Amino acid sequence: MASLLELAEVTVRYGGLNAVDNVSLSVRPGEVCAVIGPNGAGKTTLFNVVTGNAQSTSGRILFRDEEIQRLSPHEIAARGVRRTFQLGALFGELTALENVLAGLHTEIESGLLGLLLGSRRARAAERAATAEARQLLELMEIGHLADRPARELSGGQQRMVEIVRAVASKPRLLLLDEPAVGLAPPMRAHLESVIRSLAKERQTGILVIEHAIELVMNISDRVIVLNYGAKIADAPPAEARANKAVLEAYLGHA
Amino acid sequence: MSGEGRAESRRSASASRPRSGRLIFWLAPLALLPLPLFLNQYQQYVLNLILMYVPVGVGFNVVVGNLGQLAFSNVAFFGLGGYTAGILMAKLGLPWWATVLPAGIMGAVAGCAASVPALRGVRSFSLAIMTLAFGELMRWTYIRSEWLTGGSMGMAVPASDLFGWRLDLESHKFYVFLVLAVAVVIATDRLLRSRVGRAFIAIKDNEVAAAAMGVPTGRYYVLGLAWSGFVVGIGGSMYALLVGHLSPDSFNLIELILEFAIIMVGGLGSLAGSVVGAVVITATPEIFSNFPGFEELIFGLLIVLVILVLPRGLASLLARLHPVFRDRYYEGA
Fold first, then answer.
1. Which of A128, B6, B98, B139 lies at a C-alpha separation of 20 to 30 Å from B300?
2. Domains of chain A: total
3. From start to end of A69-219, where are the E strands?
4. What are the chain A neighbours of B187 within 8 Å (beta carbons)?
5. Cα angle B22-B28-B31, degrees, rounded to a multiple of 5
6. Which residue, among B100, B93, B111, has the nearest Cα to B52 in the 3D structure?
7. B123: number of Cβ within 10 Å
8. Residues of B in contact with A91 (CB under 8 A)
9. pLDDT, tens digit, 9 for 90 and up, residues B227-254
10. In chain B, what percentage of residues exceed pLDDT 70?
């Protein structure tokens, strides 16, 4: 299996507009790909079509050689795909810890009957997951937030919790939608090292939408540039930076 | 460094307290055991009414408070449970105890039916109206099925016993009801303090993000409403035994509002709140029944006051007293 995720000529049409226009791309395990482009270029729609939140009009999407374009979001998630959301999407009433546990939903093995009868196995599974979730928060240096309701956390803290929630289940493919927004510089550096170690140590394939250009240059193996839904560049960071079409799309002139 | 260590030990202490604190689920009912000895017949009846409203409130709250859906089909589950018990006893001669599970199952089936609009994407006010219509449709069905339910005149539920132990005495009903109410609370507590309970809240807070975590949201709508229907249906069978008479009017909109008041006053999305709400809403009119004409006024004022002062219900007071009453959607340390 050469590529983890493969998009072949994918188009998403909203009315007369092609939000994603005939895009082909592939992500290998352990590869970090940045997705950049001006506002409205179709970056988030690209994420949505991979996670099943938007339907493709044409084209094929393969995850580990399986077509997933007709699967529902939870089925795609169950195959090992996790994402964060541009505007942040924590479960506000749950604590940070419970949010991470919700991210472990598919990993906790407990049947309904076992839960109702309070079976030892179901309890052990819950306890193990709880310990794991606490540890993950500690690793991200936000262990002290574990028992706070998510809605009481600051914007930056919510971002970090959301990232922990997304990586808790050890996904094969991770999609981060503007993860650095609202993060203070030290947290940003921490985020960079987390992304790098996920790719190197766990061989997670990572797609990142990001406007912070230094972050993009620091972490990505490849930069994919979208403009008006179409892919205009797909190259290593330094090369993409020098690309004429990219400069035009960003600055309006070459 | 030492400060960090202290914070650490404080946190683990507060995390372990709820576990030992949960003994209250077993101790509180034990403390209630001698209660009927000190009460007269009427007071015993009110006590049983409270115990009956525990599963009814618990089930309603799972759907409205935890799953976050404005599904008002509760009174349909309640009535179906009641009529299932009554019909099985009156027409087939079954003893009451044998009708409890079928009543719960009928409620669960109705719960699955009530989840169909939610599965088709109906939410919020549209769901509220559709589920209200479901309750009224069931009431119409009881009225029209005269051969089975006695129509608008209602039907009598025969007296029953539990292997020779008379169940027409209020004090005897009390012990059976106590067992059922405790079982429903403990089972629901286990369900909510697990990935199931977290999934319910996740769906309420952000359905798209819940699905992105691999939560099959549709399945959890069905599960939430079916569990609600199951325990409320059991409450219905308790009603049949308690009152001894079933009529369509017992399952009308006024009844639904009363049940809604239980979870609002107790605290939406709080298991402890459902129990406290059942106690307060059931007992208050009876306490003030010595002031005829004023009881409704006092009752109404109480509801308005609680909701104004405690928007998260009486349960938020309890949560301040002891962390065991705070809702936690995980098990253990």
1. B139
2. 2
3. 81-83, 173-177, 205-209
4. 116
5. 150
6. B100
7. 14
8. 198, 201-202, 205-206, 209-210
9. 999 999 999 999 999 999 999 999 999 9
10. 93
